[in-house]
Amino acid sequence: MNGLAPSGRMRFIAFAVILCAGYFCQTAFAHPRGEWTKLILTQHWPQTFCSVNKCATNISYWTLHGLWPNTGMRCNTSWHFNASLIEDLIPEMKEYWPDLLAPSSPEFWKYEWTKHGTCAAKAESLNSEHKYFSKALELYNKFDLTSALNKYQIVPSEEKYTFDQVETAITSCYGVKTKIQCIHPGKGGQVQTLGQIEICVDRDFQLIDCEKSTKEIWRNDIPTVLVSGQSNLSVCDHSMPVYYPPVPSRS
Ligand SMILES: *[C@@H]1O[C@H](CO)[C@@H](O)[C@H](O)[C@H]1NC(C)=O
Ligand SMILES: *[C@@H]1O[C@H](CO)[C@@H](O)[C@H](O)[C@H]1NC(C)=O
Ligand SMILES: *[C@@H]1O[C@H](CO)[C@@H](O)[C@H](O)[C@H]1NC(C)=O
Ligand SMILES: *[C@@H]1O[C@H](CO)[C@@H](O)[C@H](O)[C@H]1NC(C)=O
């Protein structure tokens, strides 16, 4: 800047002002008031889910819980879930987004669509049932937690990990802050159980820190918890060993 003559400096400032105005204009245009700015991709560990909810599963990979915008809930209750619109996705949905409580029912997808999908749909990129569910599957495949953890030798086992080991693995893979949730032991318990992990993306589906959006999420009253039995899930304790429960071996 020192090298610029006064007129050059003026031109620079004018240029910067135009750039900024353009940026704000574009931002305001792309994100009208009330629209979400972040999506939370939530995956859960079926063994932990089932230990709390008294179901049984032999699934040995993380499954989808949901794709939640950071603002809004039940944005359009007259937009009913219609399974035939995502017929082509159903086989993948059954595998990676299963209703662990009722494996053959579409209830879980219907619930997620009504509560979160109809809000996500305010963005053009997700403004149909098919776009919403296929984007969720795409992000799930892209940010595959099972292999992320495996890569850092965090595998389901009777062995306990430190929270730091788990967090380091995830942070090393994604390079952003995620939200790692555990089931806390009852009184006197010494070990927490790894249950659910939230990964955040922006409107362009690029990874961003989850922590930044925590306040916003609470302000908009999105519960971390959607299924009754999971109400004991909360952010893992940094000083307590972590149990990543293995799939029970078949008898
Ligand atoms: C959840 O926690 C409450 C107390 O914090 C406890 O009474 C209840 O049994 C727990 N539920 C499950 C399913 O572990
Ligand atoms: C899991 O259980 C289902 C049915 O209970 C069975 O069809 C499937 O082969 C099992 N998978 C594994 C990996 O054990
Ligand atoms: C709600 O969804 C219905 C059915 O898709 C649609 O006709 C209507 O325009 C939507 N309302 C708003 C406010 O988006
Ligand atoms: C669901 O979608 C299919 C395919 O577009 C359509 O034929 C059917 O009428 C829809 N069902 C309902 C209940 O809206």
For this entry, give a set of tags.
single chain; 251 residues; eight-stranded mixed beta sheet; 17% strand
3D structure, described in words:
The chain has about 250 residues and is α+β, with helices and mostly antiparallel strands. The protein has one domain: Alpha-Beta Complex (Ribonuclease Rh, Chain A). Helix content is about 35%, strand content about 15%. It contains eight helices and eight strands, in the order αβαβααααβαβββαββ. Strands 1, 2, 3, 4, 5, 6, 7 and 8 form an eight-stranded mixed β-sheet that branches. α6 crosses α7. The longest helix is centred in the N-terminal third of the chain and has 25 residues. It starts with 5 loop residues before the first helix and ends in a 7-residue tail after the last strand. About 15% of the residues have low confidence. Bound molecules: 2-acetamido-2-deoxy-beta-D-glucopyranose (4 copies).
Topology of this protein?
Blueprint lengths: L5 H25 L7 E7 L1 H8 L9 E7 L20 H7 L10 H14 L8 H14 L2 H7 L5 E5 L1 H12 L4 E5 L8 E11 L4 E2 L5 H6 L13 E3 L6 E3 L7
Parallel strand pairs: 5-8
Antiparallel strand pairs: 1-2, 1-5, 3-8, 4-5, 4-7, 5-6
Helix pairs in contact: 6-7
Bound molecules: 2-acetamido-2-deoxy-beta-D-glucopyranose (4 copies).
